[in-house]
Here is the input.
Amino acid sequence: MKIDKNGLNPVAIERLNASIQRDIESGVNIGASIIVARGGEIAHAQQFGVAAPDRSSKADDRYLMMSLSKSFTAALVLMAIDEGRFALNTKVVDLLPEFGALGKQNITIHMLLTHTGGTYAGLAPLPGMSLADIGNLEKLTAALCAQPVAFTPGSRCHYNSFGGICLLGQILVLTDPKKRSFAKIAREDLFEPLGMTDMHFGNSENDPRRVPVSFGDRYTGPSNAGVVAVLTAPMNGELCEVPAGNAFGTTMDVYRFTQLIRGRGTANGHRLISPALFDYAAKNHTGTMLNDAWDFECVARQIPPMVANFSLLGGYARGEGHSITAMGYSASNRAVCAVGGGSTMWMFDPERDLSFVFLSAGLVEGLAHLERLSRLSDLALAACD
Here is the structure.
């Protein structure tokens, strides 16, 4: 088979394209945008389907990153650790005294990054909060401080959609020597240095390049409007800040972030994270622990429990063993990724020097999204010589 100049097989790349197109034709989602890069050079970039019913997908579409946003916040946390503002084992209560109640006094920065702290993990608004209040970082922090611990910190691993990473976002604000908002910290300290020119926490609902949240052809219609409203209400607005989920940006923005991962903390001429801390953060920090947030769906599907494999990079480490991951079964054990619920992912495999970015229009619920990402990542990896 012919190999292109980036060491990618064009026939294998077409298989990746075809798999994405089949998903669109079968109504799994309505559109997508991808980048495949090798050796720090983009080898393949393509858009599929539509971003909205009346709009074809384009390279400059701005997607809601969902929980892929956690990787940006995690990078900022690592930068703050390198600056000496706090450490991985610093207790949250030492930075946020009001947090130290109802069993939460021993929760550390490391626990928040690895979803082992036992903080409130629900998607529903906390008592006294509206959906829109989730985007008010100060209000959300106050509500989280008032909640009891869900389990003994460090004893379990339970994926936390909002609480843990949002607390880290507020800690970044409280320890920022420049006294900036979270969104401004992210823009000035991370997005601008990396050239992520279209990435921002929060976005105008009137942005013509915004990809609206939808559920694809299988879930269209008025009956789904309420579900979409619940998902998007906390994310909407230019001043809305959800460090765990409401970054908006393009495929190119996410690709530029993967180059920070590729460079072990350095990209675009900027050293943002020390190589020593990056290498430590890229490991599996939850050992053999299971991610019990998926227990119900694993039982329903009659599949093995989900191994957690959380890194400190706001996502996952491939690690060892035969278990489903968004990076695919064939990724090397040093591969890392971040996933956004139902729609987004970046992956980097250092052994193959491969970056893969996938953003989609149309959510896929639960483990079905993870299974899709695993399939697509394996197809991308299969293109490597």
